[in-house]
Amino acid sequence: MGNKPVITIETIVIRDMNRVWTCWTEPRHIMQWNNASEDWHTPSAENDLRVRGTFTYKMAAKDGSFSFDFGGVYDEVQYGKRIAYTLGDGRKVRIDFMESDGGVKVIETFEAEETNSLEMQRDGWQAILDHFKHYAEMKMN
Question: Are 137 and 15 in contact, with CB atoms under 8 Å apart?
């Protein structure tokens, strides 16, 4: 990571590594959990999960008032261990996956942007991670 403030969030998903990895990386699943609140959704997701591969998730307000693309380029991909990427604005993100008591601990570390407060960024990313946990544990088929 560079010299920007760094934020770390985490959760434990009570499922096996294969299920957690599949939910995190496959577009059909990403579109189900990648939102910070119920008034947002991800209507499309593309993911080329390999070093130098790219990803783009369209994030949109359900009322159609606003949308943006969230995307970047993968720097590191190690199945069941780590995904690291650089966002379009140059910030770095790392996601570590670790086997933990009865599940998988997911630790996400990212460089903060300068527009929103650190607390707002942490809370927003944590809300998305919490949706991921819920989807991976309860809804994924």
Answer: yes
**Tell me, which fold does domain 6-139 have in CATH?**
Alpha-D-Glucose-1,6-Bisphosphate; Chain A, domain 4 (3.30.530)
**pLDDT tens-place string over residues 104-127:** 999 999 999 999 999 999 999 999
Structure token pair of residue 29: 């699943």
> How is residue 23 written in tokens?
């939910």
Q: Residue 61 and residue 42: Cα distance in Å, rounded?
A: 9
For the chain, domain boundaries: 6-139
Asked whether the beta carbons of 4 and 112 are under 8 A apart, the reply is yes
pLDDT band at 141 (very low <50, low <70, confident <90, very high): low
**Which 3 state secondary structure label does DSSP give 24?**
helix
In the DSSP assignment, the letter for residue 137 is I
